[in-house]
Automatic annotation (TrEMBL):
Start and end residues of each FAD-binding PCMH-type domain: 98-268
Any one Gene Ontology cellular component term annotated for this protein: membrane
Pathway annotation from the record: Cofactor biosynthesis; L-ascorbate biosynthesis
Pfam families: ALO, FAD_binding_4
Ranges of biased composition (kind: Low complexity): 14-32
Name of the protein in its database record: FAD-binding PCMH-type domain-containing protein
Cofactors: FAD
Length: 592
């Protein structure tokens, strides 16, 4: 920050000098000048007097500099609130897996303030990472350098009901956008499991919902405004700049800080959600027809059981309101009884009354906390969860943005991959084959795999860095494994360091799944869940795979244009998608 403030001060002094020149007094005519009178007043100073004078001059100069700095600072405070960014801001992602102390956290509330922050960081060669709601399970938005948050840039700017578009600031929350669209009879085409994301982060990370005919959310972007270090505000539209937008849609904050987005909308609609529990063989037999027919489809596989939770959503047909409402089933108040019984039997809680007010997912977390890495215990917890879903199965009706949300649980590690699964009209077998291979790996290795393993689908995305980059008729399957970071019962402070053991175990689990299953299907990892390996050889292998899967040379060329000094990158981005020009420059400086 000191470098940025210094640059700011130098700029202000130059502007002041160019605008206001101190007038000099006109010299007196020679005839009017008086010679200095003789006497002691003009006698040479002693060494002691000269030293005192110098000290007075230095002290006076320091006072003047301090006063000028204070005046300048106060003036800037009134004019620009970003000078009051929070220093040494402690930031954590939503899942609690990554923490960083940002040297300075900027929270601009206008686009002009955002432009100023980016411009001054560029001028001062200061790293500046963009952050939204910090919901990514990895550390994609975290940095120990300066961070600029879009949280205060959260307005819904314009809704065009005729064109079915909405223009929002990047920090607008997905839930707030959905609420603003409802009175206009509009909604977004799809939603992820949670809606607390900022729209900018939602798009830049390549987030997705589920539905074979629905692309990831970046495909909904028809206009994008980036604040770039080198070129200032750059406005892109799908109609005018399709090639640039294809690279900027999913760009991981590397091309510029997203300021505004225009999203395509669809008519608001209600969904009928049906939840059933089936055996794995039944799911496989019915899958091809089901994925073609369902508007939204999600499978939740319960490891170490033969249970698969099938959640299907279809649009409420015209005139079908009465029938759907009649089919809407109230949840079984005793659905969580199997989880409660296991908690009491294992003395995780003293009695069933202690479970009052707890959700089934709270109970699952408590149970797993007893022995989260013991495969035998995890099997018992998963079996109780499968029984819960049997009891909770049923139908409900609601608006799409309400229905498509899902309780993801508490602190957790997640790894999600995406791979091709045929075509929308003709689904392949890759999705079911992948799950068969994964479940066999878990079973044979007696892995303490937590539930659920979530499986979803989308069609292709026009964004070239999307894991589902492809045509609109391409079908992609997404599969996510999970491990909850739960403390031992009664050890909420984690004095026993259970979480670090879980962290290490999940790193092994993730690597094993990638090595034994993911690579077989050329799976691409979700950017928001991708962790750079610590082992140099593994990191090199991952970089090579990413370079093969994505057009990184073109992407880095655009990075060099918009961000020539690479100030927008953090350690995470530099590890995964390094820039040769930056590395060569750093090597040259070290050699010099």
């Amino acid at each position: 920050m000191s470098d940025i403030v210094a640059a700011w001060a130098r700029q202000a002094r130059r502007q002041a000098a160019s605008k206001v020149a101190t007038p000099k007094a006109a010299p007196k005519a020679p005839s009017q000048r008086r010679p200095p009178p003789p006497g002691p007043f003009f006698a040479p100073q002693s060494a002691e007097d000269a030293a005192k004078a110098r000290r007075r001059n230095v002290l006076g100069g320091l006072i003047l500099i301090a006063a000028a700095g204070l005046g300048y600072h106060n003036g800037m405070r009134k004019r620009d609130s970003i000078l009051y960014a929070e220093p040494h801001a402690l930031l954590s992602n939503w899942s609690g897996t990554h923490i960083a102390t940002a040297r300075r956290l900027y929270e601009p509330s206008t686009r002009q303030e955002l432009e100023t922050v980016v411009r001054l960081a560029h001028t001062g060669d200061q790293p500046l990472r963009a952050a939204g709601a910090l919901l990514s399970p990895n550390g994609a938005a975290l940095s120990a350098e300066a961070v600029v948050s879009t949280a205060r840039l959260d307005r819904v700017l314009e809704i065009d009901a005729e064109r079915r578009t909405v223009r929002v600031q990047a920090g607008a929350r997905v839930a707030d956008v959905a609420a603003a669209l409802r009175p206009h009879g509009l909604t977004l085409a799809n939603y992820a499991s949670i809606r607390e994301q900022t729209v900018g982060g939602f798009v830049q990370a390549g987030s997705h919902g589920t539905g074979a005919r629905l692309p990831p959310v970046d495909a909904q972007v028809v206009g994008l405004t980036l604040v770039t270090p080198a070129e200032g505000c750059v406005e892109l539209t799908r109609e005018r700049d399709p090639e640039l937008l294809a690279l900027a849609g999913v760009a991981l904050g590397a091309l510029g800080v997203v300021a505004e987005l225009t999203l395509a909308c669809v008519p608001a609609h209600r969904l009928v959600e049906t939840t059933t529990v089936e055996r794995a063989a039944t799911v496989r037999a019915r899958h091809a027809a089901r994925v073609r027919e369902a508007k939204h489809l999600r499978y939740m596989w319960i490891p170490h059981t033969d249970a698969v939770v099938v959640v299907r959503c279809d649009e409420l047909p015209a005139g079908g309101e009465a029938e759907a409402v009649a089919a809407d089933t109230a949840p079984d108040p005793d659905a969580a009884a199997p989880l409660v019984a296991l908690a009491v039997a294992s003395k995780v809680i003293a009695s069933a009354e202690d479970a009052a007010g707890m959700s089934p997912f709270d109970l699952r977390g408590l149970l797993l906390g007893r022995a989260p890495l013991d495969a035998t215990w995890v099997k018992r917890v998963n079996a109780a969860e499968a029984e819960y879903w049997q009891r909770a199965a049923g139908t409900r009706v609601g608006w799409s943005d309400d229905i498509l949300g899902f309780d993801c649980g508490g602190e957790q590690w997640v790894d999600e991959v995406c791979f091709r699964d045929g075509a929308v009209a003709a689904p392949g077998t890759a999705a079911m084959d992948y799950m068969s291979d994964l479940l066999k790996l878990i079973q044979r290795g007696a892995l303490p795999a937590h539930a659920p393993i979530e499986q979803r689908w989308t069609c292709g995305s026009p964004s070239r860095l999307s894991p589902a980059a492809g045509a609109a008729d391409d079908l992609f399957s997404w599969v996510g494994i999970i491990q909850y970071r739960v403390p031992a019962p009664g050890d909420e402070a984690d004095v026993g360091a259970q979480k670090p053991r879980i962290d290490a175990a999940f790193a092994r689990y993730r690597h094993l799944v990638d090595e034994k299953v993911g690579r077989k299907y050329d799976a691409r990892q979700h950017w928001a869940k991708l962790e750079p390996p610590e082992d140099p050889a593994e990191l090199d292998a991952l970089r090579a795979r990413l370079a093969r899967q994505y057009p990184l040379e073109e992407f880095n060329a655009l990075r060099r244009r918009f961000d020539p000094k690479n100030i927008l990158a953090n350690d995470w981005l530099n590890a995964l998608i390094p820039r040769v020009d930056v590395e060569e420059a750093a090597t040259g400086e070290e050699a010099a």
